[in-house]
Predict the structure.
Amino acid sequence: MNYQFINFELDTAICRITLNRPKVFNALHEGILKEIALAVDAASNNEDVRAVLLTGTGEKAFCSGADLKDGGAMTGKPLGEILKENYEPVIFGIRNCPKPVVCKLNGVAAGAGMSLALACDVIIADESTYMTELFVGIGLLPDAGSMFFLPRMVGIQKAFEIFSTGRKVYMEEAVSLGLVTKAVLASELDAAVNELLDYYASAPTFAIGEMKKILNKTYESSLENVLKMEADGQTKCGLSNDFGEGVMSFLQKRTPKFKGN
């Protein structure tokens, strides 16, 4: 498929998805959201893909949030319908992707751009940038999943403070709050991200996918249900080729060569 608003690259076992609207700081509108959803779906269904990277073009912004000039917000269409049609497929796609999704936060993540980053499994960031839930500045509440992800990461009181003030959360604080996995110098960002992607490219992908399924449900489940999900998932993992290779490599005292299935 030819993409107009993103760059889509398959590099061996790694799928790289790059938001590509640098003139508007990779702002989100219907076109780019549909392309992100299609790209994530393609990565999810490609057996060769072992990890997905999501990042933005340029150095100033990962994603500046919804494009208010070209995002449907001023057309009179109910905003809830826009969310359901354009944003929800992206967020569900990332969370349901059976591969690890790594966000390379190369610049500011604002509004729905912050939601997009928080939906990813791991965030590696340029330590000089920041996140901001700036919805309150235009009289809106946070959306695109932020009201699900942020309270689970930082607690309800801190989430309320970040939401209701719309303030900037710089990376030192973001790391301490658990919003970001790791923050490094801009000059070290590519190396840090590539090191993690290389790890995932040779990791037991099937087991990681099962982990994501359970983690997506754990906050809404009882201990009994989580134990059942663990048992069911472990049964599936025990039948995987990766499990057989893992045991054999352990017995033979060598590095495992996982194939992701």
Summary: The first helix runs from residue 30 to 44.
